[in-house]
Amino acid sequence: MLHEIHESRLLSPRSFQAGLLDSTYENVLEHIDCGVMLFDEEGVLTFVNARAYGMLEIQRYTLAGCTVVDLLTHLSLSRIKKRQLLHIYRETVYKGKTMYEFMDEYGRYWEVNASFGAGMNGSYLFTFKEISDYKKIEQTAYQNDNLAMLGKLSASIAHEIRNPLTAIRGFIQLLRPHLQGLGKEEYAKIILAEIDRANDIIHEFLSSSKPSSPQAGIISISALLKEVILLTESEVLMKGCQIVLNAIAGELYISVDVKQIKQVLINMIRNALEAISDRLDDTTGRIELGAYREGGEVRIIVSDNGKGMDVCTMSHLFNQFFTTKENGTGLGLSVSDRIIKNHGGRISVSSRINEGTSFVISLPLTPGFTA
């Protein structure tokens, strides 16, 4: 039937729609969700539908009577489009492949199917279908498989490293009195500190590869924030900073894994301390904690007057292994983000260079426990 289509009508500069093509088949080809291009045995384009010339981004009437060579040198066709068509020609007509995939200049994926051979009497039929959604699903599945494999591998390696570290730590503790006698106790302190740092990194890797499920318990926001301040206050004061809990209107309750949420808040406070210490002026460091109700959610705010961040840094902030710290692992905020998402919440951030940063944690309020 497609051979009959191209024999029954040739395209003219006046109109691609005029001719002897049966209106029913023409209407079908014109409105299907893929581009259609038909070349006769002499390489002349005899049919193209709206989807196809829209993809080429040129006017339909300019394609009238074009051969393959004319199309590849078309004045209205962009250089990128010409290159893409040349690749399609090489892969299908020249190499004889019936299917070819490519990505256009807009990042969209297309699948080209070519029909030719004895049954086509020398004609070539090309159909173009966008497969961007399928590609995204395929890439996501591939990435998830790789991440799952990497997570298992990381957990296995971390466990294997942790065992000898525990043994080394024990032997250093036994040797400590002898090092004291030699006046080298500082060596023992350095070794123990480095072992503890290595264990902290391993713990972050394990948390990242396999975060535990939340063990929910109801707690008031004010009580939660007061506990976090008690846990971090000495560290904050030692660095010459202040930590302040702003007044909270009413009593707000959330159902969360308290240990995990504390981990998130403490991590943010420690990040704030580092941001404050990186400032080049003599501004007194200040960290503020607060919370307020917004509809059915509570917004917990952790803000500082540290060095701030640029837009580029903020865009990568929650990516695994992304860090701006010399000795950072890039796991703290990615783990925090995953913990909050596991609780049905989200984290947002705003920042200005040399002015400070604010993190906002949004979590669902517990019904019946709001004052």
From TrEMBL:
Domain (Histidine kinase): residue spans on this chain: 156-367
Superkingdom of the source species: Bacteria
GO molecular function: ATP binding; phosphorelay sensor kinase activity
EC number(s) per entry: 2.7.13.3
Keywords linked to the UniProt accession: ATP-binding, Kinase, Nucleotide-binding, Phosphoprotein, Transferase, Two-component regulatory system
Transferase keyword on record: yes
Catalytic activity field: ATP + protein L-histidine = ADP + protein N-phospho-L-histidine
InterPro entries from the UniProt entry: HATPase_C_sf, HATPase_dom, His_kinase_dom, HisK_dim/P_dom, HisK_dim/P_sf, PAS, PAS-like_dom_sf, Sig_transdc_His_kin-like_C
Record-linked Pfam families: HATPase_c (PF02518), HisKA (PF00512), PAS_8 (PF13188)
Gene3D superfamilies xref list: 1.10.287.130, Histidine kinase-like ATPase, C-terminal domain, PAS domain
Keyword set includes Hydrolase: no
UniProt cross-references to PANTHER family, sorted A to Z: PEROXIDE STRESS-ACTIVATED HISTIDINE KINASE MAK3 (PTHR43065:SF10), SENSOR HISTIDINE KINASE (PTHR43065)
Protein name from the UniProt record: histidine kinase
